[in-house]
Amino acid sequence: MLSTLTFLPVVGAIVVLLAPSDSLKKWLAFGATIATFVVSLLLLPGWQEIPDMQFVERYAWMPDLNIYYHLGVDGISLWLVLLTTLLMPIAVAFSNQHVKENLGGYLALMLLMETAVLGVFLALDLVLFYVFWEFSLIPMAFLIGKWGSENRIYASIKFFLYTLAGSALMLVAILALYFESGTFDLLALQEAGLPPGLQQLAFLAFALAFAIKVPLFPFHTWLPDAHVEAPTAGSVILAGVLLKLGTYGFLRFALPLFPVAVADYASLMSILAIVGILYGALVALAQRDLKSLVAYSSVAHMGFIVLGIFALNEQGISGAVLQMVNHGLSTGALFLLVGMLYERRHTRLLKDYGGLWASVPVFSFFFLVVAMSSAGLPGLNGFVGEFAILLGTYRSSPIFAVLGTAGVILAAWYLLHAFRQVSQGALTNPANFKERLPDLNWAEIGQLLPIVLLFFAIGLAPNFFLDKINPSVAALEVVQTPVVGDGRLVDSSYLPSLTSGKRSWSSIH
Amino acid sequence: MDTALLFDNAVVLLPELVLAVGVLVLMMVDITRRGQNGSQLLANMSVVILLLGIGASVMIWSRAPVEYLDGAVSDGFAVSVRLVVLIAGVLGVFLSRNRFPAIERQGGAFYSLHLLAIIGMMLMGTATNLIVLFIALEIFSLALYILSGFYRESPRSIEAAMKYFLLGAFASTFFVYGSALLYGAGGSAHYARIHETLATGGGNPSLVWPGVALLLVGFGFKVSLVPFHMWTPDVYQGAPTPVTAFMSVGTKAAAFAGFFRVMMTALPSYHDQWAMPLAILAVITMTVGNLTALRQSSVKRMLAYSGIAHAGNILIALVAGTVSASAAAAFYLFAYAFMNIGAFAVIIALEKHTGNDNDVEQGRLAGVAERFPALAAAMAIFMLSLSGIPPLAGFFGKFLVFRAAVEEGWAWLVVFGVLNSAISAYYYLRVVVAMYFQQPEEVGDEKDPLDIPVSRSSLFVVTVSAVAVVVIGLQPGLWADLLRGLGQ
Predict the structure, then answer these.
(1) How far away is chain A from the Cα of B209, in angstroms, using its nearest Cα?
(2) Residues B360-366: what's their mean pLDDT?
(3) Which of A167, A85, A174 lies closest to A134, judged by CA?
(4) Is residue B488 part of a domain?
(5) Which structural domain, as residue segments, surrounds residue A82?
(6) In a mutagenesis test of the A interface, which of B396, B418, B420 is the best target, namely the one with the most A β-carbons within 10 Å?
């Protein structure tokens, strides 16, 4: 089942390349992503709320070297897999409308990308994981370099080399782990435990790779370039899914394998995360280009997720997992909206807009909802994730929580600033008049609607999602034996448990 | 000598014998058709002979290692290297079939020298005796000197041959001198006996060091380790591209095979002492190779420097000095054969289109992806594989070598290795960027050469190599089982 899920897009890519006409390619690519989405939905009916890996597949790949083709999914990866399979058809649908040049290659690369990302989320063997991890660079670099805007070649090379160099040392660390414990298997390594000295070094090697991918301050410089130059669907996938590979890496590999080192470096990582939150938000405020504003908002939001992870308690980590999904949805939607606007006006500068509510109300409505979700308005998805993260952070360090909260305020500021600049005020620029600027069509609404509905679903019924996440998070060693923070400061018995069943449903009705 | 002994275990050398007979037949055929132009028949014969050679290697594949007359052995390492050399040879012949005027004119000489070089290279991997090793080295070196200068009208080709020959002769003398000293140290030319003598406290250990140092110069020249690499870019660029393609892989495989066997069977007891200098040499070789490759505008020169960097990578396996490390090196060379020859095959296919008979400038690659989508895609695969991006063959070559080195505690060396891989990604990526992302600057002035179709034999090599690189990458376990190390 997981193999079908992972490699269905590759089959789609091959079929798309062989298809004779562009219109057929469009339908095939869209069909392949929808089929993948359907397969991923099949994970839900059989889902058990247990900490263990489910739907596990394990075959010998290089048996002499102890390398296995080992896939599995648990509460941490489940929603990320579904996020990927949901965003892909949306991104493909958007591309089908707007990409003109070399469509077949573009769609095939998108599909390869999906396989690479799903592979990273599902792999339980370090070598298999590394293979998917590195492979995910190629389609993205091509998408940016071939279909991006003016400065695309620079952005593509920067993205590729930056992330490649970051993960080089991880390979050495993987080999070192192997010779320490004789296995590349994540679960077996977790069982075995590693000596603290090795943990320190290996954590640094892994953390560098993940921090660049996230990107954590000060490793974020590739991100604005890549985002601004990437084609819209590329940005959606980059922000929506690819950045999650970094935070997922921390959760899946760094936390379980190196608990001692994680405890040692948690404060440092949290501080970097907070610097990223504040820096990203302030820089976003100063942007004149709507797309780079969204790009910098990603730096801030991803900082939040890292902050939650390194709170090292159940609330923080569960919130971080949920926030990964939230950020994927809301930032993905923001990039879609920016792309839709750009396709109409061919400018992304804030000063070219203003008063769009009068001319394109449907667009403006969606923009408002998405901005609110990104800013963490209660009732929408962003609030649940941020609240849980801040709760968890407060438990481990109140100061970090206070600083993080400042980030929430800044986020509301720059998002409302963007909304005001684009949609409110007087409609002065004639190019934006109703006659010249068509509103969203049904296809575009169709792309945005599933995301917006999920905003409400997660916002109003977070427990449906959290209940699947929590068992796996609670089983993490760093959560079970808290090593950081002052537990007495806030007694855990006062904290509302996030696993308490259907309470939020009943409180709504 | 007892004549029975001559035939006992002679099967060890079966592939070499098949090729030797083949060369003789080829020359006979060439004589009978003297005066006729065209060498397609000879090329086809060479392919058949090489395929018979591969068949012979497969026949002796699963036999237990035996030694023939104290001079050659048929262990897993020997047959693996043989396979690499033979595959490089077959692909090289297909690349030579492209109706190059010089090769068409003198096909007999070209293909018999090509086969002779292959015999020498195969022998390098099997030799267990310094004298056999030297003979093997000279057989393939002399053949390659002539082949590099085969474009007699091209000054660059002549320059390449001259440079290669003079420096090569110089390196050979070092090599002979080193062998002589090693013979003096161990009292025998046979590796195992040298080891035996030295390990039991006999012989003359003070000669080991100068002997190894001089041998290192000889081997370092052949596999182009820094600082013995100066000839590489000029020869790679000047030599006919099919020869460069074959030579870049064959020489490396053969010389490394010889190097591994000498160091690991004659001098394993000195491993602690020779490992560190070789490790330093590996770091220098990788770094200098990669940093210089960054600045090349000719794709052939870029590949020459990349070849130097790859030699540094393979040297890491020798530093580790275990059986599994030698198997890893065999895998690396196997993968390298396909990706490197594939890259040269693309160059051959594009040479005429980019207005140069024997090279491709990187700037001229702009827009190639639009005109030749299949060639560009294959080239992208080769470039990504050379830089070690999974899941392609090159990644697993590096992975296995690095793994063997970490196992022996050479983690710091591997750190240099992976960082160098990251550097190398830049210049490999530049080729991809040029082909896919850049637009050709002026199109108008050379419309005509664009219409020359790519020859079928080049396409064949490109296809086979690309498929091999992908298949090896997706199923590395299969090939890692097949390719074995010393004594296995």
Answers:
(1) 32
(2) 81
(3) A167
(4) no
(5) 2-508
(6) B418
pLDDT band at B355 (very low <50, low <70, confident <90, very high): low
pLDDT digits (tens, 9 = 90+) for B442-454: 555 444 445 567 7
Measured from the Cβ of residue B262, the count of other Cβ atoms closer than 10 Å reads 22
Residue B434 confidence (pLDDT) above 90: no
Q: What is the pLDDT of residue B35?
A: 66
Q: What is the model's pLDDT at position A492?
A: 43
Reply yes or no on whether the pLDDT at A496 is more than 50: no
pLDDT of the residue at B447: 46
Residue B34's Cβ-side half-sphere holds a number of Cα atoms within 13 Å equal to 4
Q: Which residues of B touch A127 (CB under 8 A)?
A: 399
B→A interface, C-beta within 8 Å: 384, 389-391, 395, 399-400, 402-403, 406-407, 411, 414-415, 418-419, 421-422, 425-426, 429, 433, 436-438, 476-477, 480-481
- The C-alpha angle B295, B297, B303, rounded to 5 degrees, equals 80
* pLDDT bucket at A503, cuts 50 / 70 / 90: very low
Cross-chain CB nearest to A160 (options B403, B429, B477): B429
- For residue range A293-308, what is the model confidence (pLDDT) as tens digits? 889 988 889 998 999 9
Classify A346 in phi/psi space as left (phi over 0), alpha (psi -120 to 50) or beta: left
pLDDT of res. B441: 66
Residues of A in contact with B400 (CB under 8 A): 65
Contact flag B429-A161 (C-beta cutoff 8 Å): yes
Contact pairs from chain A to chain B, CB under 8 Å: 83
Nearest to A153 among B399, B426, B433 (CB): B433
Q: Mean pLDDT throughout A174-183? A: 86
Closest residue in chain A to residue B388, using alpha carbons only: A134
- Look at A161 and B425 and tell me if their CB atoms are within 8 Å: yes
Residue B467's domain comprises 3-482
**Domain annotation covers residue B188:** yes
Closest CA to B83 of B262, B304, B327, B308: B327
If you search the block for the tokens 């379980």, which residue do you land on? A256
Please answer yes or no on whether A164 and B425 come within 8 Å at the CB atom: yes
Provide CB contacts within 8 A for A127, sequence distance 6+.
Answer: A61, A62, A67, A174, A184, B399
Q: Quick one: which of B287, B274, B268, B146 has its CA closest to B219?
A: B274
**The pLDDT value given to residue B451:** 53
Query: Quick one: DSSP state of residue B293?
Result: H
| Measured distance CA(A99)–CA(A107) in Å, rounded | 10
Q: Do B422 and A131 touch (CB under 8 A)?
A: no
Task: Tell me which residue in B390, B419, B426 faces A131 most closely, judged by beta carbons.
Answer: B390
- pTM for this one? 0.90
Mean pLDDT of all residues belonging to chain B:
88
The answer to whether position B307 is within a domain reads: yes
Instruction: Name the residue type at position A253.
Output: F
Count of structural domains, chain A: 1
ipTM of the complex: 0.89
Contact flag A135-B419 (C-beta cutoff 8 Å): no
Distance CA B413, CA B4 (A): 49
Q: Minimal CA–CA distance to A375: which of A409, A352, A400, A399?
A: A409
In a domain, B185, yes or no: yes
Domain count, chain B: 1
The answer to whether residue A485 scores a pLDDT higher than 90 is no
CA–CA dist B398, B421 (Å, integer): 9
Q: What is the mean pLDDT of residues A178-200?
A: 85
In DSSP notation, A468-492 reads HHHHHHHTSHHHHS--SS-TTTS-G
**CB atoms A62 and B477 under 8 Å:** yes
3-state secondary structure string across A388-441 = HHHHHHHHHCHHHHHHHHHHHHHHHHHHHHHHHHHHCCCCCCHHHCCCCCCCCC
The confidence band for A395, taking pLDDT boundaries of 50, 70 and 90, is confident
Name the closest residue on chain B to residue A182, using Cα atoms.
B407
pLDDT at A505: 40
